[in-house]
Write a structure and sequence with these properties.
With 174 residues, the protein is mainly α. The protein has one domain. The chain has ten helices and no strands. α6 packs antiparallel against α8 (123-138).
């Protein structure tokens, strides 16, 4: 199922506007962060994200009706426990989950199904860092080792930029 079937898939999507907004925001945030920290790599990753989706839009990949119940589960649970959903908490969970899913590019490579995954392999550092950053924010560790986690995350992104084929000095502001 790819772009040509996009309209049919789009019409089957359940209407959950809150989840749609959260997924859209997360995908936009991913692309903005990559553009900021690793523009050369970001362009390739953006194309890869789009090609995974049947509509050519990365958010639609996660909104397919029979996929990604783990994005819907926290929202369903929150709605059943409280009248008002904690939007910031839910946005963090959705963002972490989407980043965690994109680590799938390793799976594609290992299974021999890769297309451009080898060229964007440094993006796994970005996705893993973004996945973990949410939990670092929610469950602050008192360890001095992790105090510099946000700084380490930026450096991790920049290393991915350097490794993706262009020097830090030219594309990453160093």
């Amino acid at each position: 199922m790819r772009h040509d079937e996009g309209q049919a898939v789009q019409s089957m999507l359940p209407q959950d506007h809150q989840l749609e907004e959260l997924v859209e925001a997360s995908c936009s945030r991913i692309l903005a962060e990559l553009e900021c920290h690793a523009p050369f790599l970001g362009k390739k990753v953006s194309q890869w994200m789009a090609q995974l989706s049947p509509t050519g839009r990365a958010p639609d990949y996660f909104l397919q009706p029979r996929m990604f119940p783990y994005l819907r589960l926290p929202l369903w649970a929150m709605r059943s426990f409280t009248a008002e959903v904690d939007r910031e908490f839910l946005a963090d969970l959705v963002h972490s989950t989407i980043n965690g899913y994109y680590i799938r590019l390793l799976d594609n490579l290992m299974d021999g199904h890769g297309t451009i995954e080898l060229k964007i392999l440094p993006a796994t550092a970005f996705f893993h860092g973004e996945f973990q950053a949410t939990y670092h924010k929610l469950f602050r560790c008192r360890s001095s080792l992790l105090e510099g986690f946000p700084v380490s995350l930026v450096l991790w992104h920049r290393c991915g930029c350097a490794r993706s084929g262009h020097g830090l000095h030219r594309y990453c502001g160093l």
